[in-house]
Amino acid sequence: MEALQKDNKGEGENEEVRGEEIDRWERQDDEMEATEEDGEEDAGMGEEEEEEIGQEVHERRDVIDHDVNAAPPEEDEEVKRLIEAGNMEQLANLVLNGEGHRLIGQTSDDPDLQGFLNNVPAYMGKIRAVHEAAQEGHLRDLQAALDRRKFAIARDGSNSMGSTPLHVAILFGHTAIIRYLAGRFTETLQARDNSDRTPLHYAATMADNGHYYNLLLKLGADPTLKDNLDNTAEYYMKNPGILTHQDLLEEYGVSGEVANNMLEDKGNSPQRNIPVERSVFWTEEGRYLANALGDPLVRGLTEVANTRPSDPIAYLATCLYNYANTSRDVRNDTQESAMMITTGPPEAVGNFAAPPPASLDEDPDTIQPASDSPETALTSANRDEHGQSMLHFAAARSHGRNALFQLLQEADINVGYRDELYRTARDVAIQAKLPENIQDIDKWVLYMAARGETDKLMELLLEGYDHILDVEDEEENHIFDVVQRRNQHETMAFLQSIPSFEEKREELHSAIRRGNVEEMKSILTPEAGKGNLLAVAKNVYGRCCLHIAVLCQDEEMTRFIAVNFRETLRAGDNLERTSLHYAMALEKVEPLSTILIKAGAKRVLKDLKGRQPTYYFMNKSDILRLKDDEEAMNV
């Protein structure tokens, strides 16, 4: 739906409100990566039972599949009133509550609203896919379909229960799905069905010795919530005959015979659901193992389950090795930051910690991960769907002296990241009229330069950060003076090269916009690696040369850059959209996407909104606006 938004300033106030409602509906998506702790096996369900359940579920689906394509009621006064009022939020709630079929075939004179109505079947299909994956225990399918956060609590309207995906996952005993949904989307823990029962109420009926019940409590479920009969989940656990797992399954559409075979413990005592603590974790050895190895093992096993490598043992070993290295680096950085006292201006800090000798950084026994090794999630920028990091939020608020600088020391966030409005954290501080925050950010840049951290300054330059050379300390000493005083010759040479590098970058981007292939090739001709750096360098809009070539729909330029500078294929813009994301929204989608994919572009990479490139094939407006911006720059 975000694809339907319009930014025309002449629109009336009502249209702006509708745009905000569309925006809220659309922006609930998140980076839906399976990084949560979902490594447990599904609770003991045999293959025969699963097959039998699957047959019943598919039979039930056949009965309800007509809902998506069914015509709406001839007279649905409520829907008509909502459409006439342009109430996008309430219409979206109908879809999320499993009543999307009421909107099928409805029309509106408002183009934004009509665009939403046209997309209702697609939204219903996604919600249905999430529920099907939750039923069948297919975590990957669920993650693929769950590209909007609100789908995690959406109902599919396939039965009268009004259950959400977490309700369904508990009902069918899929532990990995339960861990993923409850751990990643905490709002699912409080979601209710049509009888006001939470997932914890469902878990209380399971004959699993309280395993799911305790799991949900640990993940944050509220045990005090009551259903429409004024009963808590604990009440059903202590009174197992009042509401049973079989009752819920039959209400869902599964036969009683199959229900009897699901998740039943060998014992059949009346108190089978009373929680039983696992004694191993009460021992000293158990507590040590849980604290020392629990998190890395769960993360590693989750990666193995999701990736399914050819050599799972070596793959797990690589995961654990990378986890240990990352944890060690984080501890070292924290200890180093704690030892630094920065009470005066940067140039008064006489003893910057010198970087370790190169020989200490080299590890001859470094394990080289396999080609299918995972990319650690700890290297992510931790930015939200609007491109903002914690630094953007911190820059918009006043703090005590040096507080923002200390945050930068501890978090080590790249200050060059831009949000969806192309603002760095420094830009946010300027708009908030907080000069002390601007000074702290400049102080951080000066601090890195004084320490000779040329690599980090290079990251800023490649990110398109444009406030490196104009930095001064509190005594108005220019960055060149401070670096020269510290005898950081390599850093000084780098700083001096920045103006010519930025000029070359702009010449390159301009040549691409003008369609001058020869000029582009001459600029990108490798000179001691400068061609590679220019290729991945982003401008103040977060776009590298491949982004621009794709927006210009120039196949020859796109092929040259993609083939010769493959690192550009993974380069993301201010919202981490790759060139393939761009290509999917353009007229020449087929030749451009073919070129990019053959060169090595990945079709599964998600942007900060959790969208894969294919999303923009149907929702083009965001990318088309970028295309218009690029065309305007060429005037």
TrEMBL record:
- Return the Gene3D superfamilies for the record: Ankyrin repeat-containing domain (1.25.40.20), cAMP-dependent protein kinase regulatory subunit, dimerization-anchoring domain (1.20.890.10)
CDD domains xref list: DD_DYDC-like
Q: Which Pfam families match?
A: Ank_2, Dpy-30
Basic and acidic residues: compositionally biased ranges: 1-27, 55-68
Q: Which InterPro entries does the UniProt entry name for this protein?
A: Ankyrin_rpt (IPR002110), Ankyrin_rpt-contain_sf (IPR036770), Dpy-30_motif (IPR007858), DYDC-like_DD (IPR049630)
Q: Where is the composition biased (Polar residues)?
A: 368-381
Regions annotated as coiled coil: none
Q: Where is this region: Disordered?
A: 1-75, 353-382
- SUPFAM superfamilies reported for this sequence: Ankyrin repeat
Q: Acidic residues: which segments have biased composition?
A: 28-54
ANK repeat placement: 161-181, 195-228, 386-420
Ordered alphabetically, the record's keywords are: ANK repeat
> In terms of domain of life, where is this protein from?
Eukaryota
Show the PANTHER family listed in the entry.
ANK_REP_REGION DOMAIN-CONTAINING PROTEIN (PTHR24172)
Q: What is this protein called?
A: Uncharacterized protein
Please give the organism: Cryptotermes secundus
